[in-house]
Automatic annotation (TrEMBL):
Pfam families: GGDEF (PF00990). PROSITE patterns: GGDEF. This is diguanylate cyclase. Gene3D superfamilies: 3.30.70.270. Keywords: Nucleotidyltransferase, Transferase. The lineage of its organism: Bacteria, Pseudomonadati, Pseudomonadota, Gammaproteobacteria, Aeromonadales.
Length: 292
């Protein structure tokens, strides 16, 4: 019997039997209430979507299911079996866009099944809108308001998560610490609005100098950090070279002679986050001392 794997393992059994789905003309009120209460009881957006996916898989011949919203894509259900692809746009009662569900279905849906799926999507809309908003607010709390990159809280969380990922699947992790040379003089000579503009431009340079798998943070003041993952031994030098190139060719920063110091450390098994930070900070200090 073909089985359907739940991505994230939310269901009690971890998989759903494709032979158990039932085509219904409508959802009984008791089932509607149970599904809605279960969705609203979840703690995270991913749990809401996985709960919904598990429910749908007991009703319809789903081979695969993924959720897509802006740049985010989450796999919810997966199986070896391929099916007919069909996508549905999710909206609330005010026609606010809530994302898209991409299905692969083992069989073409009949009229009753399509009506059932429509009802299920309508039930999902209310908790989905709420959890998307909560997720957005949570993300905003991790962003530096001036530069738009990660803040110190997000940095602390991300370093620990990256270490845990490397413990499970080592692929190289490097922490780079940066600050702007003589930044206080820029503020003193040109004013804080110019200083803020420098921080914003430098943050944009960091974003252009790293890959999509890397993350940039502003730790405070003119102090920045980069998490490079995966990262071989040559990754820091390549990133530093790109940063220096962009600094030298930035029309806003070159007149101010903005320069940056760069220190880094590679994570090794058994190393705590605080140790990794200390090593990178020590390297940054050595670099700055040699420039004096």
């Amino acid at each position: 019997m073909e089985t359907l794997q739940l991505i994230g393992g939310f269901a009690r059994s971890g998989e759903v039997n494709l032979g158990q789905y039932q085509a219904r003309n409508a959802i009984p009120n008791r089932d509607k209430l149970e599904l809605l209460e279960t969705l609203m009881a979840q703690e995270k957006l991913a749990d809401v979507l996985q709960t919904f996916a598990a429910w749908v898989a007991t009703q319809l011949p789903v081979c695969r299911l993924a959720y897509h919203f802006m740049t985010r894509r989450m796999k919810l259900l997966d199986s070896m079996k391929r099916g007919h692809k069909q996508s549905f746009t999710l909206q609330d009662t005010r026609h606010q866009y809530l994302g898209q569900l991409d299905y692969e279905l083992g069989d073409e849906l009949d009229v009753q099944q399509k009506r059932l799926l429509q009802h299920l999507h309508q039930l999902l809309a209310q908790p989905l809108r709420l959890f998307l908003r909560m997720d957005q607010m949570d993300m905003q709390s991790r962003i530096d308001h001036l530069t738009g990159i990660g803040n110190r809280a997000f940095f602390d969380e991300s370093v620990q998560r990256a270490i845990e990922q490397n413990l499970r699947r080592p692929d190289g992790l490097t922490l780079a610490l940066l600050d702007l040379d003589h930044f206080k003089q820029i503020n003193d000579n040109h004013g804080h609005p110019v200083g803020d503009k420098v921080l914003q431009e430098f943050s944009a340079i960091l974003g252009r100098s790293i890959r999509r798998t890397d993350v940039a943070f502003r730790l405070g003041g003119d102090e920045f950090a980069l998490l490079l993952q995966p990262a071989d031994e040559g990754a820091p030098a390549r990133v530093e070279s790109r940063i220096r190139y962009h600094l030298a060719h930035n029309s806003e920063l070159t007149p101010l002679q903005v320069a940056s110091s760069f220190g880094f450390a590679r994570w090794e098994k058994g190393m705590h986050a605080s140790e990794l930070y200390t090593l990178a900070d020590r390297h940054l200090y050595e670099v700055k001392r040699k420039r004096v």
